[in-house]
Design a protein that fits this description.
disordered N terminus; alpha+beta; four-stranded antiparallel sheet; binds zinc ion; about 450 residues; elongated
Length: about 450
């Protein structure tokens, strides 16, 4: 039996259907005598290991669709394989190589090219399905199929139907080549759906993760720049106080807050616990400059942690570096009570420095009119709190004048200069004013 014989028989893929599933439906329909010969025909190989996530020889498979169907290998890659979800985090050159490998012989190097074999994120052992998707597709198309989304590590719910996925009998680890393409129709049981609860935060997180993966899978597989993704992560972490203003990570603070947000069991099921035996935790490594790419599910967790979706992260943040402006765009107000521009936005330039004492950034504001200089912590940005670094010449001459005016009490000076009596006295002495005040008798 040659490939030519099959032309016209391979069914068109359904939405989000794995290539593997298309072939399984085909084998079912044809009652193909031996899956082994199908494997040989289409893949010229008995190996099935990479068939589900990153199938290869797609040029050959694209040619086996009915002549009227305009499907090509690139469309199969974008719509029927896991590559789009991985590609988003890979360099463009590597995605090109992966496309080439999947069109041609592929095989072994594909996993190396994807590059996170060392991540230890396990693939779900059994193929999974959503009982409500099954009902729906059976009604709409009289077909059931294996979805890409449902097989992705970390996706354990169907976001469309808000229910848990169920495991089929298809074991990805122990498959025999005589039944290399078990179809969804023959491998799932009808089960009542286990619905998610809208009030359950863990359930809601699972839906967000699944939606984030679904969005990535729906994009064409295009690589990007891992450096701009890293840059985006760092700048969002900095805005949230997890790094110094120079982007140096507060590792313990991040691990603690992240660990409080995601359940330990869920992270364990993804081979991604935060506690490690002396090894650098994956979450910290993710933020290092490195050629090793980590599994998308880890990146998606960090995106979710930062309050973004994959869509908003890739469209609004990555590649659109925003300057770090914890105090807004300015100009800022002079807070010197005796400056003639007081409380008006006359400060156009400010400096951001990192305070190691407070473990956060500080802004230093200098009034060009009166020389008054103050600083604020980022956490004080929207408050009136400040610390004066230099009162400036205008304030000092006002102090001198008030000091020598016998009608002014210290209490009044405190109010007018917005400083306590000790500060006023200290500055008066520094300025060479007589101390104690030698006031002429009335
Ligand atoms: Zn569903
Ligand atoms: Zn001023």
């Amino acid at each position: 039996m040659g490939v030519e014989f099959m032309i016209g028989f391979i069914p068109n893929p359904r939405p989000d259907e794995l290539i593997f599933s298309v072939l399984a439906r085909y084998a079912d329909r044809l009652r193909f005598p031996s899956h082994r010969s199908l494997l040989r025909e289409l893949f010229a190989s008995n190996r099935v290991s990479t068939l589900i996530d990153f199938p290869c020889r797609l040029d050959r498979i694209a040619n086996a669709f009915p002549p009227g169907s305009s499907l090509n290998a690139d469309e199969l890659i974008d719509n029927q394989t896991m590559l789009p979800a991985h590609a988003a985090f890979l360099p463009a050159k590597r995605v090109d190589n992966l496309r080439d490998a999947m069109k041609r012989a592929g095989g072994h190097p594909i996993h190396l090219l994807v590059g996170h074999a060392s991540c230890r994120v396990p693939v779900p052992r059994y193929l999974r399905y959503c009982p409500l998707c099954v009902v729906q597709s059976d009604n709409d198309f009289a077909e059931v199929w294996w979805h890409r989304l449902h097989q992705f590590p970390g996706v354990i719910v169907c976001p469309e139907h808000a229910c848990f996925l169920e495991e089929s009998t298809v074991d990805r680890l122990h498959r025999d080549t005589s039944n290399a393409f078990p179809s969804a129709r023959t491998s799932i049981a009808t089960k009542p759906p286990r619905l998610l609860r809208p009030q359950n935060q863990f359930h809601q997180m699972l839906i967000r993760i699944a939606e984030n993966v679904a969005w990535l899978l729906a994009q064409p597989a295009a690589g990007g720049s891992s450096e701009s993704i890293r840059f985006a992560f760092i700048s969002l972490l900095r805005e949230r106080g997890f790094t110094t203003c120079n982007g140096r990570l507060y590792r313990d603070r991040l691990l603690e807050v992240f660990g409080a947000k995601y359940s330990r069991d869920y992270l364990m099921s993804l081979g991604s616990p935060l506690e490690t035996d002396g090894e650098v935790p994956w979450l910290v490594r993710l933020l290092h400059r490195s050629r090793r790419v980590q599994h998308p599910i880890r990146q998606i967790l960090l995106i979710d942690f930062l309050g973004y979706t994959t869509k908003s992260f890739f469209t609004d943040v990555v590649g659109q570096p925003k300057p770090y402006r914890p105090f807004g765009a300015g100009p800022w107000c002079c807070l010197n009570p005796v400056c003639n521009r007081r409380r008006t936005a006359c400060i156009k330039r400010m400096l951001i420095r990192h305070s190691f004492e407070h473990k956060q950034a500080i802004g230093i504001f200098f009034c060009p009119v009166c020389g008054f200089t103050y600083r604020k912590l980022v956490s004080e940005a929207s408050t009136d709190r400040k610390r004066v670094l230099d009162f400036g010449p205008v304030w000092r001459s006002a102090l001198k004048e008030l000091w020598s005016n016998p009608r002014r009490t210290i209490r009044e000076m405190e109010e007018m200069l917005e400083a306590d009596s000790l500060t006023i006295k200290r500055h008066a002495i520094k300025l060479g004013c007589p101390y104690p005040r030698t006031l002429p008798r009335r």
